[in-house]
């Protein structure tokens, strides 16, 4: 090749973790990394890299890593091929010989940096060279060594150095690599995929709006019944007294009397209710008692039918692991009242009374006012308050999560994200708060609607981070499972089990497999990989049989969700599930199903 003909020089950049570093590095080393990089120089129609077998060459993309994650244009070189060949042969025989590879100090990136200096007069990007040693020191980083060793096996090329193939001296370099024209079919496919993603997000938003409208309709119906009962009660007595219509007051718990003492006035159905009082003015009440009875009977029949449908759906799904008897809600509420005594505003006192009606008087969520989530947000996020307040509130909410209509509360939190912003800071909370938060998240899987809410993928910004419900749920699950506290581990294993058994995790698998990395619709595949990493790390301990069963069942499901990445992780990181063979018959069956995949 003539010396005045320029040859394109490219840097092929591969992420050895296949995206896992971006997800797990914050937890492992306390800082975010985009990837752990392997690089190769592509010039003269060949790919050159350095590994444990020394300097090697193959056709572009000819290693087990396949296509690069990114390609960096380094520039052009006017060095003749024969000169470059002598240079790279010399490197293979000296500084980059077969046994000189060191993962920390003398690796593939040092090689490509030196070759780039020779060909183009400049090195490779600094961010590639700056992969911190602390992440390579972790068991995860050490597990990358076998993958690096396997590069030479899949290269099907030639080695330089002691085993150099002299026929390379007669190799005629190809034309510089050119970008292929983009296929119109590929453009059309990508457009269709993006349209499906946008429609999916729009559908989710529309579903939320419909649920909120249904919730308002339900609250209006409840309010109508309450007004009818009140009118009937007033009509049955010639004189109205403050005690009429409040016969249950004599049976209220001590906490109820303490809460009521802080309220302004005696009205329990003031303007703070979720449905505006003005809406009730438009309701026309019939005078005929038979008509009222008939309407009530119809309402009761509809509610019974709805309950029956919900129960049927519950029976058809995989039963979640929840903790129904973990706390005594009356004890927790009384303790909460004691801790907040004297520090609440009148509006917050009203919300506390509404919470009493919802949890202890078995009223529906319609009893909760518009300011209820503001009340919850203040107790959760005001760090000047005692930690015990947050613990008791979360325990009460964990009991509320078992109720069918808790979703009506959750839908109101779509804009402020009071609950999930607090949960995102799980690693900064006290141990007692972490345990109560994990209990709340776990119990949310009791109902289909609230468990679906945990898997929402719509994103928002919080503390300079982009988060979503599914990301926060995953973070709480991983943090709890990898804790050294038995209670947290128990609840973390339950959350991961429940996530793995959700039908939504396996929806649109075929479509998700052809989407590009980083696409929002691939979030469930990313979650499966992240949770698998946590499970494998948890397996290095000696978990009890029940927790081991939940985690092994989750791992089996994740093998179905991410059929390539999860089995590769098991092989790379270990331990092999077979290590736990003999723990119980049900675990042995799960290990068998994992090994088949």
TrEMBL record:
Keywords: Hydrolase, Protease. The keyword tRNA processing does not apply. One of its GO terms (biological process) is protein modification by small protein removal. Residues 263-273 have a biased composition (Gly residues). Residues 244-262 have a biased composition (Low complexity). Residues 172-183, 304-318 have a biased composition (Basic and acidic residues). Residues 216-228 have a biased composition (Basic residues). Residues 164-186, 214-318 are annotated as: Disordered. GO terms for molecular function: peptidase activity. The keyword Methyltransferase does not apply. Residues 7-149 form the PPPDE domain. Belongs to the DeSI family. This is PPPDE domain-containing protein. It comes from Gryllus longicercus.
